[in-house]
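Try it yourself: sequence plus nicotinamide-adenine-dinucleotide, in.
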Amino acid sequence: MKSQTVASNVEFKHKQLEDIQLYINGEFVDAESGATFENINPFTNTVINHIAEGRKEDMNKAIAAAKEAFENGPWSKMKLKERVKYIYKIADLIDEANDEIAFLESLDTGLPISQTRNQAARAAENFRFYAKMVETKHNELFPVDDEFINYTLYKPLGVVGLITPWNAPFMLETWKVAPALATGNTVILKPAELSPLTANKLAEIIDKAGLPKGVFNVVHGFGETAGAALVAHPDVKGVSFTGETTTGSIIIKNAADTLKKTSMELGGKSPLIVFEDADLDRALDAAIWGIFSFNGERCTSNSRVFLHKNIKDKFVAALKERVQKIKIGDPMDSSTQLGPLIEKGHFNKVKGYIDLAKEEGCEVVQGTVPEEFKAGNFVPPTLLLNAKNEMRVCQEEIFGPVMAVIEFEDEEEVIKAANDVRYGLAGFVWTNDIKRAHRVADQIEAGMIWINAQNVRDLRIPFGGMKDSGLGREGGHYAFEFYTEPKVIHVAIGDHHIPQFGK
Ligand code: NAD
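Structure, out:
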C-alpha cells in the first residue's frame, strides 16, 4: 500500500511515506480486521498515509507475545550488562535517525522542526539515562541486630502498557519505553492515533537494535478500542498514561477490575507569576516561550500569567509587540516558531475558547496567520487581556497558543488565585526577592515549580502533578520504582526466637 501525499521541504521530500502496520512479536503486520485509518498532515490537511487500526484482537495478540517474551524469552533473565547494551544501541540509533525523526514528527504534528530536533535528541538521552540508572542503582540492605539481614530486589512488573498523547509523541513515548525496557519489562505501546509516525519509527529502530521478539510491541488504534483493551487485560501488570485528565480517570476505573499499577501524567493550567521586582526582560522571554513553543500544546505551559499591577502595562505592551513578531509558518522551515495545531477538531476547540474569552469580557490580541498558510490548522499567538481567574478560559485547559493575562496586587491574593484551579502540574515564579521566591514556590499547589526560569528539565527530577494533573511521578528513580516491584528477602543469620505453639 502506498501513501497519497507527502508535502515537505526538507531532504525527505522525495519520500512517499508508506502505510504503517502494527509491530507485534518482532513483525510488522496488518490489523486482523484489515481496518486502517487516515493520518492527516496538519499543515495541509491532506492525507499523509494510512495506519493499521489495531483493535481488541490485535491487542490480545500483542499482549500474548509480550507475556511469552517475559516468561519464557531471554529478556528478563538476561545479564544486566547485555540488556543495557540494547538500550544504549537504541539511543545511538535514535541519534543517527535524528533528522528523519524530526521530519516525521513535524509532518505528523505540525510542531516546528527546530523543536522536534531537540525532542529527538532528548529521546536518545532518555534511553542513556535509564541504562545508566539500572547499571548503578543500589539495592537496600537492612541489618537487624545480629539476627537478620534484610535486603531488597527490584523485579520487573512483567507486561506493561504505555499509552501516550500526540503533543510531544516521540519524546513522551521514549520517556516511558526507556525505563520500562531498562528494568526488564516487556512493553505494549499504544501511541496517540493523531501522531503514529514516530512510534512506527521507534518500532523500526528497536527492531534494528535486535531486541528479542515480543519484548517491544506497538499497537496503533483508537483509545476507546485498542487503548481500552490494553487497560482491561489481566496479563498487563501496569499502565503508564499521559493525556487528558478525563481520559486518565476513565483508565483508572477500567484498570481497577484487574488491580493494575497505574501512573497518571495529566492536564495542566499552570500559573506564571511576575512580581514587580522581577527581571522583566527575562520573565517576558520565558512567559512567551512557555506558552507559544510547541504550538501551545504543552502540558506545563504557562497558560495563566499573573502580572503585578505596577508592571502590568509595561509587560502587556511588550507582549503585544512580541506576539506580532512570532514567526508563524511551515513546520519544516527551521526559522518557524509556531506551526499549525494537530487537527481540525482541536483547532475548532481552541478557536471556540478564544470566542468564549470575548464573551467573558477579555480583550483579545493576536498575531496574524499569513494568507499562504490558511490551509493549515493555524491559531495565531493569542493574548487574553483583562482576564479574571474565575473565567472558564482561566479554569479549563485550552492546550493552544493562548495566554490569559491576569492582574494582581499582593502576594496573598496571587497565591490564592494561582491555586484556585483544579489542576496542579507546574508553576513559575519571577521575583528577585529570595525569601518571597521560596515562600511563594512552597505555597503553589503544583508538582513542579520553577523560580526565575522557564520549563528546563533535568531527567533526575520527579516529573508529575498534584490535584487533577496526575497521580504518581515519573522521571529519575521515580520511573524506576513504577516499573519494578520491590521484593524484600529476610535472612536469619542467628538463632532468633521462634514461638513454639503446641510444644
Ligand atoms: P487523550 O487523553 O485524548 O489521549 C491520550 C492517549 O489516550 C491516546 O493514545 C488515546 O488514544 C488514549 N485513550 C483515549 N481514551 C482511552 C481509553 N478509554 N482507554 C485507553 N486509552 C485511551 O490526550 P491527548 O489529547 O492525546 O493529549 C493532550 C493531553 O495530554 C493534555 O491534557 C495534556 O495536558 C496532557 N499531557 C500531560 C502531560 C504530563 O506529563 N502531565 C504531558 C503531555 C500531555
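One thing you can check immediately is this: The pocket of nicotinamide-adenine-dinucleotide is lined by residues 163-167, 172, 190, 192-193, 222-224, 227-228, 231, 242-244, 247, 250-251, 265-268, 299, 397, 399, 425, 465, 470 (CB under 6 Å).
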